[in-house]
Amino acid sequence: MPHESSPPPLSLADLGPETDLAVLAPQLAQFAAVARLEHVTQAARLLGMPQPTLSRSVARLEAELGVRLLARQGRTVRLTRAGRMLLGSVERALAELERGAEAARAEADPAVGRVAFGFLHTMGSDAVPALLRGFRVGHPQVRFQLVQDYVAAMLERLRAGELDLCLVSPLPDAADLTARPLDEQRLNLAVPTDHRLAGRRRIRLAEVAEEPFVAVEEGYGLRVITDGFCAEAGFSPRIAFEGEEAETLRGLVAAGLGVALLPPALVPRPGVVELEVTSPRTRRAIGLAWVTGRPLTPPVAAFRDFVLSRRGRLLDHD
Prior knowledge:
This protein is α/β, with parallel strands linked by helices. The protein is 38% helix and 23% strand. The chain is built from nine helices and 13 strands. The protein has a five-stranded mixed beta sheet, with helices on both faces. Helix 2 (40-47) packs across helix 3 (51-65).
C-alpha cells in the first residue's frame, strides 16, 4: 500500500469568505481537543463541558465547512484527510495565540514587565539614566523600551499606545492626556567665546534680538519654548541653522554661526560661553505625561509613581 503523503495545510481562504471566524474560533479549539485525544468523551472532560455539547459543536463546524473532519469508530474517532489539513492550521494558530498570551502576561508582570518610555533628547545624558538607576534598585528585572524624540512625535506615539509614559517639555494641554510637572530647568544663552557679550555673566534676551540664532527644528519642544521666550522679549528670532540635538547646536555656536537658548551643559564646551538670562525668566517646565483613563500595567504604574516621587529633584539646580 503506497504511503499517503501529508496533505497541504488548510488556509483561512479555504474556509470561504462567508465563514464567520469569530463564531468558528471556539469550535476550532474544541475540534483540536477531540482530534488530539481521538476521543470525544475524554476531550469533553478535559474541556469541562458536556459530551453532547462538544459533539454538536464539532458537527456544526463540519456543517459550516461542508466537509467531514472526523470518522467515528465506536467510542473513538479518527481524522479524515480534511480533518488533518484543518488540524495543522489550528495547531499553529493555537500555538501563536499561546505565545501572544504569554507575551501579554509578561508585559504586565510587575516583576519583569516592560515599560515603553519616551523622553527628550536633552534628558538622555543625565536625568533619565539617574531615574532608571533609582527605579531598578527596587525593580531590577523590569525591562524598558527607551525612545528619544521630539515632543509632538512622542505624544502621537503615546496616544497610539506605542509609548506608556513620556518625559516632555512643554507640558501638553489636552483633555486626553494627563501631565504632571516635575521640575524646572534654566535655559542659558550660549554664545561663542569671541562674542561681544562673552565677558558678561547675565544679559537680557532682547540684547541679542539682531543676532542669528541656531535652534532645534520646528516641532521640537525646545523650539516652541525658544520662540516663546523671544516673543516675550519683543522679537522673532532669525534662525540661521537648525539641528536636532543640543550638543550639535553648541558646536554651531562654537563655530560662530549663531547664539542659542540651551539647557546648561554637563561639561563645558570649548568655544562656548553660557550666559544667564535675567529677562524674561528663561526656564522650562519638565513633566511626565500619559493617556488619561488608559489602564497602566503594574510595571508602568510603578515607574510612573517613582518618577512622580522625584518631583523637584529630577534636575540639578544651580
